[in-house]
Amino acid sequence: MPSPILAVEDVSKTYDGFKAITNLNFYLDQGELRTVIGPNGAGKSTFFDLISGRAKPNPGGKITFGDIDVTQRNEYEINRIGIGRKFQTPSVYSEHTVFDNLVLSLKGPRGVFSSLFKRLNSGDRDRLDDLLKLIRLDDKRSWKAGQLAHGEKQWLEIGMLLASEPKLLLIDEPAAGMTDAETHRTGELLLSLAGKHSLIVVEHDMGFVRQIASNGKVTVLHQGSVLCEGKFDEVQNNQKVREVYLGRGKH
Ligand SMILES: Nc1ncnc2c1ncn2[C@@H]1O[C@H](COP(=O)(O)OP(=O)(O)OP(=O)(O)O)[C@@H](O)[C@H]1O
Known about the structure:
Keywords: ATP-binding, Nucleotide-binding, Transport. 39% of the residues are buried. By secondary structure, the protein is α/β, with parallel strands linked by helices. The chain folds into two domains: 1-82 and 169-250, P-loop containing nucleotide triphosphate hydrolases (Rossmann fold, 3-Layer(aba) Sandwich); 95-165, no CATH class. The protein has a six-stranded mixed β-sheet with strand order 6-7-8-3-9-10, sandwiched between helices. The protein contains ten helices and ten strands. The structure holds adenosine-5'-triphosphate. Adenosine-5'-triphosphate binds at residues 15-16, 20, 38, 40-46.
């Protein structure tokens, strides 16, 4: 049994007396791709905020990454320890080329100026070439990022996340606003990352969830807690999930 890379234990988060996350327990294995779904307001973004250090849990809970207790670490430290996050809306450097966007995201203490004007070593170059192929933007490496289609910007941002060499990737609704073909390609990309990386993907598009959860587990959040966890079909057929999430339990 692989040991969990992430353990979230008895974690709660209260905002102005409202519990956005309630006694949440969540374990992710090394190399696992987990999909997290849940209705609006279920706590998915707050869950990511807590793991990434953007928000602090109420006293009492614990978040462990590898063997490090990150419960009270700040966002910057957690990112350096190896948790990278991609938000729903792509945020690329529009005026820079695709290639330079990746250079700017390479791991290490580099300012914008030194990143762009420093000579890359051959190891970095090879890695960026591989990344460009992986995200299928090899032929657009010299394009300004602002010229890319929405789906391509999302892939570039996944590439930027990978350039920073995280061990765990938190990815928020990567398929939002994509065409069917782009969505499918994104699923292939994420599936190809599993194993080498650990990933948690929050998503609403059920066709996409079915694709990326084909070999893995889905966690359903509801009112800030785990309602159900299992293979896609198990989750889809779960009565509680139908009632609260799909809203058609009685039909
Ligand atoms: N900073 C905050 N201050 C006050 N309430 C918050 C804050 N962040 C989240 N909440 C509340 O916590 C609950 C969970 O919100 P969250 O954004 O985590 O849900 P979600 O599952 O990501 O929803 P969606 O799918 O709509 O993005 C909501 O009721 C929300 O209003």
